[in-house]
Fold this protein.
Amino acid sequence: MTGRNRTEARAQTARRRRAEIVADVALAVGMAGMVLAQAPAARAAGADGVQLAQAGQGYDIPAQSLTGAITSFGRQSGLQVTLDAAVAGDLRSPGVRGSYTPEEALRRLLQGTGVTYRFVDARTVTLTPVDGQGAQVLDPLEVDADRRVESPWGPVAGFVATRGATATKTDTPLIETPQTISVVTRDQMDAQAAQTMPQALRYTAGMQTDRNGADERTDFLYSRGFQVSQYLDGLRLINGTWAVPQIDSYGLERIEVVKGPASVLYGQVSPGGLANLVSKRPQAEAFNEIQLQYGEYNRLQAAFDSTGELTPRGNVLYRITGLARGADTQMEQVKEERYAISPSLTWLMDDDTTLTILGKYQNDPALGGYQRLPADGTVLYSPAGKIPTDLYIGDPSFDKEERKQYSLGYEFEHRFDDVFTFRQNARFLRTDGDFAYLYTGRIVSGTSSIRRSGVIANEVNDAITVDNQAIAKFETGAVKHTTIFGFDYQNNHNDSKVDYLSANNIDYNNPQYGNPGLGAPFFQQSSSQRLEQAGVYLQEQAAYDRFRLTLGLRHDWAESRTLDRLANATTTIKDTETTVRAGLLYLFDNGIAPYVSYSESFEPLAGVNEIGQPYKPTTGQQYEAGVKFQPAGYTSLFTVSLYHLTQQNVVSAYYQSGNSGPTYSVQDGEVRSRGIDAEAKIALDDNFSLTAAYSYLDAEVTESGSANGTVGKTPVYMPEHSGSLWADYRFLDGYAAGLGLGAGIRVSGKTWGDAANTFEVPGYAVYDAAVRYDLSYLSPDLQGAKFSINATNLADKIYVADCQNATNCYYGSRRKVYATLSYQW
């Protein structure tokens, strides 16, 4: 055994021991918490002779509508609370967190609302206006209509979202939308300590988020057999090949995923669907947070978030979030570094007009490493042994991984009357990528030597996106209508220069650095591409009795002009396409809502193939049938859907030219995908949340535009079965009050390792866990302070997340443990 293998073996043994210790500690903490939670709370007599809980009773109710706050109070206190909806109106409660008697907690919830309370008996409380009889008068709250911001992108309390705006561009209940939609809230991201957008979607049905494993420089998402398009605040995140924007998850309020084609409203969208990242926006209620995080691979992060009123009148609101992070990575000698800030302002011009300005700046001086490895030594046998998971395949004298991005946009809305509203959203985004790194080819037969090549790439991508919406809400007899007429425009300019160079091999059992042996470029690209798309769309949502009908029609004009500087040739492609969408849903009294839908996609693609020709737009069609269930009186949503999806002009998995040459993409003729997605989001009580997901996927290449012989084959990175489960519990009383526990499992079935299906990538299951504590339960002086520890891949399983061909495999992320201390006020 070589020295490196012995070192790796010892490291694996040490990691297994640490995993066992962590698992034992987590189990012990969980069992102790559950035992302590059974301890009876002390009781004492209240002022009215009512038996009330002592200060050991814990409450965790965020600021929200008064109705929602009182509902949560009733669940957590065990009291029956009656409140007239007319009294509650649009009032807001400041919330309450900490250990209080029910009476103290109720006073805090009602403070400033102008609503008072009265105990009818030991278990019943009535809430009345301030002039009610036998009640204490609390401070009144001024409610000014022009100081309220009603946005479909606002915060969602807990794990379960019941409304969304991405699928329809209107604030529509998810139960009434005839398409599969998944929403990941801020609370879920925090509970699972999601560090990236793909990590936030790990527990979403049918989402493949681990394509590049431990390589987190870019966010790749796949669903239903195809890559998922990414949007930010309803506008496309347009990227090139090297200049790919990445939005840090700390600045997000939530993520909404629409499964399947959505081109009618958004134009260029993959048939796999879209993920809309919703930025944190200004709020009228003051909120501040500072956060410190330390964890695996010397990760150190500091972050802050602040929002509230900027002017005395409260008609200008602000929000600013920011972070700074530095860390080592799973690969030796590779670092990650990020600085990001996101300022935003909302101007409430009058009762009917708002303008929100959203800015983002992000500088990534070190993006982490590119660890593409050959199949031999990872998923396939190599006589020289396994390739280490921490192998650095680059060279410090050559490598550079830098990216800068900034954007400025706005959202304008004016309501003319109760019928007509106009909205305009726009953004400019620049992404600048500067790269130089080595990548691997095949292993030299019978040795531990891996062939390498080098690449130097510089790309600048400028994207302008504008979306105009005219919305009408009206009634014709018994039918309620919400109609949108829209016009959107996208203009993307991409400028790139790429050189591929020869390099010397690397011995993965005895790597040597400092002399990469770079030669002259053997392949070069230099191009400038302009892609423009304009589209007009019309959507009608009709509600008649319990029927919900959605119809959509769109027409697009797209044009791409590509200049190949080396050949001094310009290629122009013009395309037009009409897409449609139709869906019908029925709402039963018991909360069950079956639906059927049909939708299409049209997606012009940026970039060129190996001979400099621009890609053709892809088209797609989906048939879907499903059932949604939202039981009355419970905060939960269940969705099961069956789909049949077809896409033409598919960009295939990577095609390798030679043993160590550059990788290219080709467009296959057609891919068919069909399957089942099932998802459940449940909040059984204020202190217990559960999210479960399962997906079955049957994908096949039905026509091939290349000579790869892929007809009848399954595309790479498409597991037939996948699923996940996460449970989250908070102790609200007893000696364990303030403690929160979370645990989850993610399972992915085996996949094919290349387009010809010549070898398999084994499936895997990994475990995640979380322990957190609200420090205000220790002392009221610590109100707003929280501490948490999160672990992903708790057992430190070594697995290959994905292979795209024989020279393109990625190890999954090893165990990561993060400790987070936050303070909110």
Observations:
- The first strand starts at residue 43 and ends at 45.
- The two ends are 57 Å apart (CA to CA).
